[in-house]
Amino acid sequence: MSDIEIAQANEQKEMQPITTIAAKVGLQEQDIERYGDYKAKIKLTAFENQPLPADHKLILVTSINPTPAGEGKSTVTIGLGDALNKLGAQTMIALREPSLGPVMGMKGGATGGGYAQVVPMEDINLHFTGDMHALTCANNTLAALIDNHIHQGNALNIDQRRISWKRTLDINDRALRHTVIGLGGPFQGIPREDGFNITVASELMAILCLATNIHDLKARIAKILIGYTYDRQPVTVGDLKVQGAIAMLLKDALKPNLVQTLEHTPTLIHGGPFANIAHGCNSILATTAALKLAKYTITECGFGADLGAEKFLDIKTPKLGKHPDAVVIVATVRALKYNGGVALADLKTENIAALEQGFANLKRHIENMQRYGLPVTVAINAFTADTPAEIQRLQALCAELGVQAVNTEVWEKGSEGGKALGEAVLASLTAPVDFKPLYEPETTLTEKIAIIAQQIYGAKDVVYETKAKKQLKTFATNGWDKMPVCMAKTQYSFSDDPKALGAPTGFTLHIREFTPDLGAGFIVALTGNVLTMPGLPKQPAALRMDIADDGTITGLF
Ligand code: ADP
């Protein structure tokens, strides 16, 4: 059965009312705003003034570098949450919201798979509670206000050639990467070059995920850099005086969304920045709510640990005020074989030699997470083609690093298939944790980039292209040169070359340009050819999707 068939069979029979799910973590009717029978938003007042109990634990799920198919990180995160609840450990899951870009494109949704899914999966993967639309609308409202300001006399002296604020759309649409707007004569505004980012790469998405309340949301929006004046002075949203209006458009999007797994584990799905071109973590508010409401919180971050986990630990953790107590790295035998040079079509054939070679990728991720001082467990997300010899070899290789690797069958069996992983993770939580950040906040931007490139990616050095070099000078002038950095890099490799699989060393990391996200509080460093507006593939997933006359959806994975 496909993911959607499993989910639909369950949705018709077994979903519990959202009030029942809310009650499992002590939330009453007045604490939530219902969106139909099975979705709700949690009011901030339901948790914001509660203390965070010191014995509540945070478990971060990350993974090796993925193959083009995605390797089941969400599936394992959901299955682990269900398994912990089954083991009697009160658990909440905190995930990111899917973007319509990958849903219609190639990678798929973000609601897990098999018997480890969140439901109602059609709603969550499509328009859900409207957060993405609110973000897109807020983003484009700001763009319209900027263009209107210039049209109406440009009191702020904004140089229309130096506007950095782009429009957004939550669909992969390469034709919108570079646009010209304002054509058609004096009544249509001032013509200028513009472009679109995918909503999940927008600064507003990052801000929504890092804001701790409405006050903070508004203050961050006020700091957003929208461009420069003709005499090269930065212009912010605060200068335009529209932070209140933009924050207002996000008032509901700011509240975490509550749903359930197939096994009724309360799950928050909130905020969805991509991890290759944005910071890759769900919202601070959702993670905080889960931490306060449940004894154990399982959360995930995007793509491999070089991207999502590095950003979770270096960008999100300081803002959250709590570091993870344990890390789970999801690996699959087939992805390691792919990293060991096996073609996608041949991944079903046993190949211990390729597994051993590709293990270099997992090894570096394990060592990177250990470098932060965190206990690590490996979850081997079992695929039917894995052979016992491959699994044993992988477990032995992990054991040599002092790490337990647990075969995990949550996709096939739900929580039953995740009990062994759950037990291993609970055991790992008893180890003392001495969290060591990768860099100190006061180090410079280029020092931070060098540390990430060399210590996490394995690079020899970092080269800045002309545009990036010029921007560094501007950042120094404006006092932005000590901000945290958010790396934008291909997810397929530790390097900026998507074809360099395994654990490459001795390479140069190329920084093409920067985007100062002053409201989010970091500078995005764009490496290699990474794009902030993806394109659709030759065979988009949309070709398989349909809706029947009675409203039944098919082909949504
Ligand atoms: P990620 O979070 O790494 O992108 P997902 O958990 O979203 O990956 O899973 C991607 C796809 O792979 C889903 O369609 C899911 O059903 C499928 N999948 C995940 N784990 C397994 C497995 N063990 N066996 C078969 N398919 C799986």
Automatic annotation (TrEMBL):
The encoding gene: fhs
BP terms from Gene Ontology: tetrahydrofolate interconversion
Pathway in which the depicted protein is active: One-carbon metabolism; tetrahydrofolate interconversion
Pfam family, one: FTHFS
Molecular-function annotations in GO: ATP binding; formate-tetrahydrofolate ligase activity
Keywords carried by this UniProt record: ATP-binding, Ligase, Nucleotide-binding, One-carbon metabolism
Identification of the protein by name: Formate--tetrahydrofolate ligase
Keyword field contains Nucleotide-binding: yes
Protein species of origin: Loigolactobacillus bifermentans DSM 20003
Family stated for the protein in its record: Belongs to the formate--tetrahydrofolate ligase family.
NCBIfam families per the UniProt record, alphabetical: PRK13505.1 (NF010030)
Catalytic activity: (6S)-5,6,7,8-tetrahydrofolate + formate + ATP = (6R)-10-formyltetrahydrofolate + ADP + phosphate
Binding site for ATP: 67-74
EC class name: ligase
EC number: 6.3.4.3
HAMAP family per the UniProt record, alphabetical: FTHFS
Top-level taxon in the UniProt lineage: Bacteria
